[in-house]
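Key result, reporting period 2: structure in, sequence out.
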């Protein structure tokens, strides 16, 4: 009789434990599902912040491009001053928007980012003294960041450095190079236009 009660108690304990285990597994599954949903929201948040960061960069670039445009030079000084004041106001308001997206890096990725940034910075320093040579070098660096076959030679050393960077840093490096290439191309066009106008003015003055 006593032995039967012991067996019954053991069976009851086993059933209770089994039910408790199932319940814990169920709770664990629900928690995991919640974390999965939160992870998707975190990634969506980072994507949205990245899009805002790119929009900020685009707006700043457009304002600078407008200020340096040929159209701005062709208007009278009074109107140009007024438009520049508006552009500077917009520039200030845009710069007041601060967006920060942290990137987790291991020591190798940190070192690679520093090397890539240093290489680009050195080229930027040479832009004024050698714009065409610097532009070609920038194109070679940019070619190292794209997957499709580029029409220009690839800087293999820079490509190896970029591959060692964190994925988010790779995207930012590529965007920075794209912006620099566009700016140098626009600067070259403006210089050619200004030089052409100078020649035309010289001819006109000589004609008189």
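The corresponding designed sequence is given below.
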């Amino acid at each position: 009789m006593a032995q039967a009660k012991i067996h019954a108690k053991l069976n009851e304990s086993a059933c209770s434990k089994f039910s408790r285990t199932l319940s814990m597994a169920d709770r664990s599954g629900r928690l995991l599902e919640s974390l999965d949903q939160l992870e998707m929201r975190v990634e969506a948040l980072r994507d949205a912040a990245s899009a805002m960061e790119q929009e900020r960069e685009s707006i700043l670039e457009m304002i600078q491009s407008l200020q340096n445009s040929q159209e701005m030079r062709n208007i009278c000084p009074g109107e140009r001053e007024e438009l520049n004041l508006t552009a500077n106001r917009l520039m200030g308001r845009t710069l007041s928007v601060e967006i920060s997206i942290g990137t987790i890096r291991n020591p190798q990725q940190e070192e690679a980012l520093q090397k890539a940034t240093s290489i680009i910075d050195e080229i930027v320093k040479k832009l004024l003294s050698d714009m065409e040579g610097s532009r070609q070098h920038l194109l070679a660096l940019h070619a190292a960041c794209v997957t499709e076959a580029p029409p220009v030679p690839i800087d293999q050393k820079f490509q190896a450095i970029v591959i060692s960077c964190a994925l988010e840093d790779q995207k930012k490096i590529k965007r920075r190079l794209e912006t620099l290439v566009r700016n140098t191309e626009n600067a070259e066009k403006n210089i050619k236009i200004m030089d052409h106008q100078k020649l035309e003015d010289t001819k006109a003055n000589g004609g008189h």
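The longest helix spans residues 2-67. The chain has two domains: 35-101, 106-202. This case is discussed further under Risks and Mitigation.
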